[in-house]
Every structure is written in C-alpha cells, then in structure tokens.
Amino acid sequence: MVLELTGIESRKIMIDTSKITTLKHDIEEAKHVVFLTGAGISTHSGIPDYRSKTGIYNGISEPPETILSEDTLYQRPELFHNFVMQNMYFPDAQPNPIHEKIAKICNEKGYLITQNIDRLDTKAGNQHVLEFHGNLYEIYCTKCHQPVSYEAYAQDFRHQDCGGIIRPKVVLYGEAINPETLTKSVEIMRQSDLIIIAGTSFVVYPFAQLLAYRNPAAKIWAVNKTPLPAQGINEIIGDALDVFPNL
C-alpha cells in the first residue's frame, strides 16, 4: 500500500506504508536496536547539511578539507574560527520529532552512533548516544587543556588565561577517530539485532565501515532520501521526518 502524505512545509510525498509497518514490527521485536545517523536528521531543526546545494560547503573559498584541518586550526586560527562560528554553530536549535523518536527507542532498548556534532540527540533526552565525530560544544584550550564555554569561544579563539588556541572537540580532516570511540562502536554493533540507518549518504569512512562489525543476524533498514551503496538493506526512500513519527 502506498500512502500520500502532506508533511512539513506542505511536502507532498508517497510512502510505502507496508514497509513502515514492517519496520515498526521489527523495532517492537528487537532486543537491541542500533541507529546510525547523519546530517539529514538535523536539517529539520534548521541545521544545514554539508555537501548539498544549500549545505555549508557550497561555495566556500577553499576546500573543507583545508579549512577544517589541524593545520588551519594552528596556522590560520582566525579563518578556522570564523568558519565554524558562521557555519556550524546553531546553539538555539532544538530537537525535532526524529531525534525524539530515536531517543525514546534508544532509552528503552538501543544505542545511537551519530556523525552529528550538534548535540541535539542529547538535548532530546537520549541517554545512549555515541558521537562518532565528537561534539562542537565540548570546547577546550589546546595549550592548558582547560574546558572553555561556548560563549567564551564565540568571542575569541585565544584563551584569555594562557593565550592558547581554543578548539571544539571534533574530529578534523586528517585526524583519527578516537580509539575508544571505535572500540565502543564495534561493541555496540556486535550487540545489535536491528540496525537503522537514517539521514546519511553512508559514504564517509570509517563510519560506513561499522556495518562490517554488526551481528551477522541483525536486520538492516535505511530511511533515506536516496538509496545507499551498501547491499542487503531494506530501504524506505523518503524523508525521515515523514517516517519516524509513524514508528
């Protein structure tokens, strides 16, 4: 059965309700659900994604791999600071129904591994969140290693106490994922009996490689606007905002 829905901003879409029903049943039957999410989850909270036509990388003066690198952080700290402040921080953003539904399921019987660095999942009350690429709001001085508030960082990239360069605790281009994060991610994947991928093109590594560590018996679903490159996935093609409230 195909259902015509009119959603946010009068978006008219067609959704296969039988797939939603099956996914809902799989969630109810699962003992350990794992969500793998990306930027598409937060766009409905007013946070742009990265590489779409309206994304933060569109039309920038230098490649993002250059601007958001450790070299730029230390060699051109003003450029780094201006870019993240103008394009990546949305302190007033609030969780949307997708965050809320994921939080409800995770708090009951699951875990979220997210690429997002906007902390909206924890704002939604999710107690089982692993931020694979870190969190923009964990900010510290690279010289004295003291924590720094967002408000202080917004004013200056230099630490007033010691003059060190301040940075958010996120994985920059060229930096490795925290080994503890990788170990925890693999552990979570191995416990899974249901995996739900949402709001991500699932092409960024090593995040996309996490599927290799899943429980072989786990069912895999994707709720995404476009098909994913991975094989063996049950897919609902559409906007997650039109799907998750019905789960």
TrEMBL record:
Highest taxon in the source lineage: Bacteria
One Pfam family from the record: SIR2
Active-site residues annotated for this sequence: H133
Boundaries of every Deacetylase sirtuin-type domain copy: 13-247
Enzyme Commission code: 2.3.1.286
InterPro entries to which the protein is assigned, alphabetical: DHS-like_NAD/FAD-binding_dom, NAD-dep_sirtuin_deacylases, Sirtuin, Sirtuin_cat_small_dom_sf, Ssirtuin_cat_dom
PROSITE patterns named among the record's database cross-references: SIRTUIN
Enzyme class: transferase
Record's protein name: protein acetyllysine N-acetyltransferase
Organism: Lactobacillus gigeriorum DSM 23908 = CRBIP 24.85
